[in-house]
Automatic annotation (TrEMBL):
<keyword id="KW-0805">Transcription regulation</keyword>
<protein>
    <submittedName>
        <fullName>Helix-turn-helix domain-containing protein</fullName>
    </submittedName>
</protein>
<feature type="domain" description="HTH araC/xylS-type">
    <location>
        <begin position="187"/>
        <end position="284"/>
    </location>
</feature>
<dbReference type="Pfam" id="PF12833">
    <property type="entry name" value="HTH_18"/>
</dbReference>
<dbReference type="InterPro" id="IPR018060">
    <property type="entry name" value="HTH_AraC"/>
</dbReference>
<dbReference type="InterPro" id="IPR009057">
    <property type="entry name" value="Homeodomain-like_sf"/>
</dbReference>
<keyword id="KW-0238">DNA-binding</keyword>
<dbReference type="InterPro" id="IPR018062">
    <property type="entry name" value="HTH_AraC-typ_CS"/>
</dbReference>
<keyword id="KW-0804">Transcription</keyword>
Length: 288
């Protein structure tokens, strides 16, 4: 385990991959004190007890949300052997995790978990911290670490419909998703939307994945329980919130970056989602 406590920008080189699909290598990021974590080029604001499970990545950057503050995260560098530890948990059989674990470079692949409703995950991370302090050449310790990691994945699986943040996560990109499971379809669609937020339309996203717009609209609602337009607005407002928190750009500049040609529409949707105007939201963040 490595604890990163920083008031300054810190770059942490991470091996892109170290294992096969049978023994996937994972980086577990456990936020202890609010931090901006940049995974390759994607900046994510994490609150205490929020987690990121990383399969493949090149670099991780940790920075405080605002100058002068301290950001604290714990990094756990773990390998799980699915041939040995899978019987004690079901995480390896879930499509969401199966696609994550099977990913290979150069694609970034990670899942962000927010609003975890119990302290079980923190308990597993605390146990990993204790185990990582023991001798690394002890086979029993290695097995225990793999087992605890799999139990953590199993608990995250149990909560992933409520706590998994598809907007912030990054799944292996696929253009051919017609015959894949819904978790893979959802991950691929969300990754594409996040990368093309300003220009995405039902027509061009459907075309990218090889569907007719009407069929894709029905598929989208089946997967996400929301219409395409509702989800797109939600994602754009979430992106706007991040920009308001992390930059000094004007509301008009941010609204254009996330896909609004009319700032008034951005303000309206933002207030519907947060009950605050963008200006009031930024002022509230600065007052904390």
């Amino acid at each position: 385990m490595k604890t990163v406590r920083t008031k300054q920008l810190q770059d942490l080189p991470i091996a892109a991959t170290l294992a096969t699909t049978q023994q996937p290598h994972l980086l577990i990021i456990d936020c202890q004190q609010q931090a901006v974590v940049k995974l390759d080029q994607q900046a994510i604001v994490l609150k205490p007890s929020e987690l990121v499970i990383v399969r493949t990545i090149k670099t991780v950057t940790v920075d405080p949300v605002r100058p002068g503050q301290t950001a604290v995260v714990r990094l756990f560098d773990e390998t799980v052997d699915l041939r040995v530890t899978a019987p004690i948990g079901i995480a390896g059989d879930n499509p969401l995790f199966r696609d994550l674990l099977a990913s290979q470079p150069p694609q970034s692949a990670y899942v962000v978990f927010r609003q975890l409703t119990s302290m079980v995950c923190q308990g597993y991370c605390d146990q990993l911290a204790r185990l990582e302090a023991l001798p690394i050449d002890d086979r029993m310790v290695t097995y225990q670490r793999q087992a605890v990691t799999m139990l953590l994945l199993t608990e995250l699986l149990r909560q992933h419909f409520d706590a998994g943040s598809l907007t912030d996560s990054h799944f292996p990109q696929r253009t051919q998703i017609r015959y894949t499971n819904q978790a893979t379809q959802g991950g691929s669609i969300m990754t594409y939307l996040a990368a093309h937020l300003a220009t995405a339309t039902l027509q061009n996203v459907a075309t990218y994945f090889g569907y007719q717009p009407n069929y894709f609209s029905r598929l989208f609602k089946t997967i996400f329980k929301q219409s395409f337009s509702q989800k797109l607005i939600q994602m754009r407002i979430e992106a706007g919130k991040r920009q308001l928190a992390l930059t000094d750009q004007t509301v008009a500049q941010i609204s254009q970056q996330v896909g609004y040609q009319n700032t008034a529409n951005f303000n309206q949707h933002f207030k519907q989602q947060t009950r605050l105007t963008p200006t009031a939201y930024r002022a509230q963040l600065k007052s904390r």
